[in-house]
Amino acid sequence: MSDDRKNKVYETAEKLSSPLNYSVKEIAIILAAGHGKRIKSEKSKMLHTIWGVPTVLRVFNACTEGIKDINVIIVVGIKAKDVMNVVSKRTTTAFAFQEEQNGTGQAVQVALEKIKRDSFDGIIYVLPGDMGLIDSKSISSFREDFINSKSDMMVLTGIYDGEPGKNQYGRIIRVKEKDDTGKNSGRDFGKVIQIMEYKDIERLKDDQNYTVEYNKKRYTFTKQELLDINEFNSGVYAFDYKKLVELIPHLKSDNAQQEIYITDLIDLFNKNGYSVTAESPLKKHVVMGFNDKAVLKQMENIARREVYGELKTLIDIDDPDDFFIAEGVVKSIKKMEAENNGKPLDIYIGKGVYISEGVKLNFGVNIRKNAYIDGNIHFGRNTLIGQNVQLSTFLNQTMKLGDNIEILSGDIVKGNVEIDSGTRIESGVHLTGTDDFPLRIGKNVLIKGMSYVFGSLIDDTVHIQRSVIIKKRVRAEKNKNGTIKPVRFILPPAEGTELIEDL
Predict the structure, then answer these.
(1) Where are the alpha helices (DSSP H) in 121-249?
(2) How many CA atoms lie within 13 A of 379 on its CB side?
(3) Which stretches of 69-209 are DSSP H helices?
(4) How many Å apart are CA 358 and CA 327, to the nearest integer?
């Protein structure tokens, strides 16, 4: 990276960083500097989404929701500006730039430079930015475990269920029941000795043993024993800050990848007489990270199952394997059910439906197959949205739909639009409103027959058929027999006719 580009990254980091609140004795460091070569994408690994949210934001949200008022330092590197701009400026959140990616240990060193040593004495949490299934409950539980353990360092571990040869995570090496002399390990049994990276295990010869020392006792492992360990390092840690800054300068890059590993801190903590513990989360999948699109897809499917599990008793989802409802909408559905004392919501979501953040559903909403709902769209009660309908708004716009509305198959409604109760929009209609020319449609209006309406004011009870109406006021008027006069075949004057000639 050129000096000019580096300077711009530092400028962006300074602009988007906020001061840390040192009265809060907890800081989360999120490691988001890597690119992820194996994912084969020009986009930063940290910006790939799981259930509609970039992974780095999912980790950030889990931290800030799981630990009240926590400070956050996000370490950026490759595609640094892209990552920072997605996270944006937030309170008590700072960015640290890792110019050269030389391992997780170095990334933490870079982050620690953002902390004023004389002002902070508390807990440091470290999390990978690609752990997109981590949630606030798991973070909160990990925090509680660390505090209750009174240890100096804790690592969050996972359990690998597959074949050992396919497990490329770092192994958690624990004290055996007996040492190399045959003596019982006593209270040390099961304590964490170190984490050994898979590539370092692979580097051992098949007949080569690996010996470690813990509390003046030696323990020897065969290469196969190491490979068969199914407890792995998730990359999530908690540290006593003072002990962390004391020992992290002593990390070395004596390993297969010649990088500075944060995992080597376990050995340093043990050798200095500091306590190291490990805990696993209740839900195994929360420690998943990804290096390729296949695992990312797997994580997306897990997220979908989690959302379906939350909603399956509240609303009717036609296909549990083919729908998207943004997390904020999920929360609002649960809140609506709770605030109405369990009253049935009668909401139906068809196969392939997409519902983004900003959407507010209501009682009796029926959204049919493959409808796409994106933006600040507020539904009235008993609204029917037909299959393949597209509803969307631009930034800072709101679409409001009244009660008992029908918007039928293939319709497109976009922008600054309000539709009052009882209106029916039949198939093939296109409605649009902008900030300068909003579209307002009254009660009990009927629009049908491939019509297009833009930026207009439509009175109650008007019937429009096969018309193009642009920036007009349409009044309702009755015939002598009391029926509404229809508006039909209205077309604006043609333009460009001088450019057309007979062949």
Answers:
(1) 136-149, 198-202, 223-228, 241-247
(2) 29
(3) 80-87, 104-112, 136-149, 198-202
(4) 10
pLDDT number for residue 253: 79
Residue 361: which residues within 8 A CB-CB, separation 6 or more? 329, 332, 333, 336, 347, 355, 379
Q: 155 and 173 in contact (C-beta within 8 Å)? A: no
Element (DSSP H or E) covering residue 402: none
Mean pLDDT, rounded, for 184-188: 94
Q: How many residues does the chain have?
A: 503
CB atoms within 10 A of CB 82: 15
Distance CA 423, CA 357 (A): 25
Give the integer Cα–Cα distance in Å for 299 and 285.
8
Residue whose structure tokens are 């770092």: 170
The C-alpha atoms of residue 454 and residue 108 are separated, in whole angstroms, by 54
Structure tokens at 410: 């293939």
Which element (helix H / strand E) includes 316?
strand 316-317
Rounded CA-CA distance 323/50 in Å is 14
Residue 483: the pLDDT is 87
Q: How far apart are the first and last CA of the chain?
A: 59
Q: Are 287 and 156 in contact (CB under 8 A)?
A: yes
Strand partners, 425: 407, 447
Alpha-carbon span 486 to 417, nearest angstrom: 22
Look up tokens 């960015």; give the residue.
95
DSSP state of 170: P
Q: What pLDDT shows up at residue 255?
A: 66
Pair of tokens at residue 348: 């139906």
Share of the chain above pLDDT 70, in %: 98
C-alpha count within 13 angstroms, C-beta hemisphere, residue 457? 4
User: Which two structure tokens, joined as six digits, stand for 7?
Assistant: 């300077």
- The Cα–Cα gap between 50 and 67 comes to 22
Q: 162 Cβ partners below 8 Å, 6+ apart?
A: none
